[in-house]
Amino acid sequence: MLTPRDVAHRLSKCEADCIICTPELAASLDEITKSVPLRIIVSDNQEDIRAGWICYNELLESCRGRSAQPCVATRADDIAQLFFTSGTTGKPKMVPHTQATYGIGHIGTMRYWLDPREEDMIWNISDTGWAKAAWSSLYIPLMAGATAFIHQKPRFDAKETLRALCEYPVTVLCAPPTVYRALVQCQLSQFPLRALRHCVSAGEPLNPEVMHTWTKNTGLQIYEGFGQTETTLLCGVRKGMKLKFGSMGKPAPGYNLKVLNEQQQELPPYHEGKLAVSLKQGYPIGLFKGYLWDEQRTSEAFRDGYYFTGDRAYYDDDGYFWFVGRADDVIISSGYRIGPFEVESCLQEHPAVAESAVVSSPDELRGEVVKAFVVLAEDFKHQQAETLIADLQNHVKTATAPYKYPRKIEFVDSLPKTVSGKIRRIELRAKEWAGLTEYSSGSSGSSSNHGG
């Protein structure tokens, strides 16, 4: 899903000199070598491999019979891998993780959330190159001695995914909310998931209605986990915990999570604020030390004895944390602070909604108002737009505080997302504030500004 320009940016930033890819991608990468010097290793035997390329299989074959090379000695604080953030709020940042942050830090992720057993087969639906793939496709299966299930397809297909879950003995499913939202749009009763025993979700919050639908049809709960490219599991719902639909769960062992106000003071339960990791009583083993070659962003993230996640949240009397939104995503309308996730979750309860994204939209009277971009479920795509908009607005008014309802609704064919599947609200918001009224990627043009 990355364009050659995206790849070139990442290669130049991290100063890579070699890339391993599939034959399908090699041709597009060949153009990049004109601006970024690197070797291309193609992961298949191909007759049309170009001059200067290296065949991965032939490279392995050439090593047969050679004496074993000594292992490279490493320190715990040596960089083991670099990840780029998904870019939900701006340009991707470069995150280094050491031999210890993932190698040791993910023991907690494994034990308290993914819960693998040696006999398990884990299917992690995440593209390689993203931190989530390293979590659940590499480190944790290796640590647990479990099997990693690889089922690569050019494009995600919900029915094909369900058929694979029926056909293969996958016991643990790890998927982003985008996948679960697509799966519950199918007739789940037609797909008996007999082997599946444990389901987890990560990447962004999962709407409670999706959880209810999944559990009702499969008998399985979805255990949410919250983390970042910069961390291991920060917060999660573990087996044995009381389920609170929509909650991120409780802090993972080793992380001291706090909710702070603008003066960096800790807030009591039910008060929304900045979500931060306190470093005052020790540094979590799974937390990175700073963005590579970016002192400004590092100093913005690490301040006053805290690591600031860039998210807003609150916690309840039981110590469960609740996600409100990225700091830049929160909408302030007529003095009210409105988190997009709560409005999106209300919309998700309506049968007409397959998926939605809520952002701020300019308004002369209120400064900004709530606008929802809605992808309709198949059965509702041909209904009268004005009637459906009013129905959705009334639904939100009755499901949550009336001031949170979307005064503007626009129906679109798809939502802009990062390559890791997170909704890019920043893109929708930028179009709104630039004065654009239609989202160019397949907008149906159905938009309304209802209500006083």
TrEMBL record:
One of its GO terms (molecular function) is medium-chain fatty acid-CoA ligase activity. Belongs to the ATP-dependent AMP-binding enzyme family. The keyword Ligase applies. PROSITE patterns: AMP_BINDING. This is medium-chain acyl-CoA ligase. Residues 342-422 form the AMP-binding enzyme C-terminal domain. It catalyses: a medium-chain fatty acid + ATP + CoA = a medium-chain fatty acyl-CoA + AMP + diphosphate. PANTHER family: ACYL-COA SYNTHETASE MEDIUM CHAIN FAMILY MEMBER 3, ACYL-COENZYME A SYNTHETASE. GO terms for biological process: acyl-CoA metabolic process; fatty acid biosynthetic process. Pfam families: AMP-binding, AMP-binding_C. GO terms for cellular component: mitochondrial matrix. Gene3D superfamilies: 3.30.300.30, N-terminal domain of ligase-like. InterPro entries: AMP-bd_C, AMP-bd_C_sf, AMP-binding_CS, AMP-dep_synth/lig_dom, ANL_N_sf, Mitochondrial_ACSM. Its EC number is 6.2.1.2. It is an enzyme of class 6 (ligase). Keywords: ATP-binding, Ligase, Nucleotide-binding. Residues 2-292 form the AMP-dependent synthetase/ligase domain. It comes from Scylla paramamosain (Mud crab).
